[in-house]
Amino acid sequence: MSRPRAYLAGPEVFLSDSAAVIASKRELALSYGFQPNGIAEEELDPTGLSLFEFGRRISLANEKAMRGSDLIIANLTPFRGISADIGTAFEVGFMCALGRAAYGYTNTARPYFERLRDDYYHGAIAKTADGATRGPDGMMVEDHGMVDNLMLDGGIETLGGILVRRQVEPDNLWSDLSAFEDCLRAAAVRFGLARPT
Amino acid sequence: MSRPRAYLAGPEVFLSDSAAVIASKRELALSYGFQPNGIAEEELDPTGLSLFEFGRRISLANEKAMRGSDLIIANLTPFRGISADIGTAFEVGFMCALGRAAYGYTNTARPYFERLRDDYYHGAIAKTADGATRGPDGMMVEDHGMVDNLMLDGGIETLGGILVRRQVEPDNLWSDLSAFEDCLRAAAVRFGLARPT
């Protein structure tokens, strides 16, 4: 039986120790019976390409890898702001449209509403005349009790996946793989894989 | 002939004058021959639903509207940080996976690299021993000359759409619809629609 192919999405490529973290994630996926899928950017040759053309080559390779995958496991830990990495969000949407199994995790237990209220607005939100809660810039402060934007949480839920929240030590925000492993465990049950030995 | 259905994506629902801006966008889309598609959140009844369940209802309605649309026009103006609205990014990915026509625009001419370097890292980026440019947090600073993450720019390019950049007055960041209209104009040519009268 061929292994289900798992597209491992997340902003790990930007980390200073990206190769080590990505290798750990691939090994863990393998141990649960999945074939980790996705491109290694260093395998793509930028020779003779403009910066834009090289970026496009990565995009095309990622889209192809997603179409060839049975599920996505997305790291939705907030990245460079209060929301998940936007490229990862694109990829979750991509896989949801294809109806593939979708799993997500975040290494913070704080919901989007708290990050928006405290980290972005520093508490300065208030109910306004129209009944909505808004920031000083007039923007509506939404609260759906979700990890991030409702399209992400909703899309994963619709496809029967799980979205794991774990609070990890700040120093381990990008290296702690327990929540990633929670996703692997749930997906392994769904795909009828044996437990790792 | 029935009008092509255009899914109008963007964070406008959060604006203090959301109803007016959304109405203007819909009227403009109509004037170019498109049927504006998408849900009006106020038409969904939250009675008896938890916050999460209501969010999920919105997500389901949006996914259904996207599947019933011929193209997406996405407002990718940076929202609550240096990147586009993450829900909109999910939606662009969703439509790219379905192979629908995708158009995007942003009301700032500054590319992602500049926003990352100046707004997020306040200039504190440097080349490191591995040859990559990184911020003080060790994260790689990518530069593909793109509007945002390469999955967004790349996905739109792959489907033959355009991604319009316009620098507007700061006060008009969310009300200026010239770049949106650039997308409508390009999409109207592609869908063989007559020019607006």
Characterization of this structure:
The structure is a homodimer of 197-residue chains. Chain A contains six helices and seven strands. Helix content of chain A is 38%, strand content 13%. In chain A, a hairpin with a 5-residue loop joins strand 5 (126-127) and strand 6 (133-134). In chain A, helix 3 runs parallel beside helix 5 (150-158). The radius of gyration of chain A is 18 Å and the shape is globular. By secondary structure, chain A is of the alpha/beta class.
Query: What is the averaged pLDDT score of chain A?
Result: 95
Q: What is the β-strand count of chain A?
A: 7
* Oligomer status: homodimer
Structural class of chain A: alpha/beta
Q: Which consecutive residue ranges of chain A, at least 5 long each, have pLDDT under 50?
A: none
Q: Which series of helices and strands of chain A comes N to C?
A: EHEHEHEHEEHEH
User: In DSSP terms, counting alpha (H) and pi (I) runs of 4 or more, how many helices of chain A?
Assistant: 6
C-alpha-based Rg of chain A, rounded: 18 Å
Helix content of chain A: 25-40%
The spatial strand order of the largest sheet of chain A comes to 2-1-3-4-7
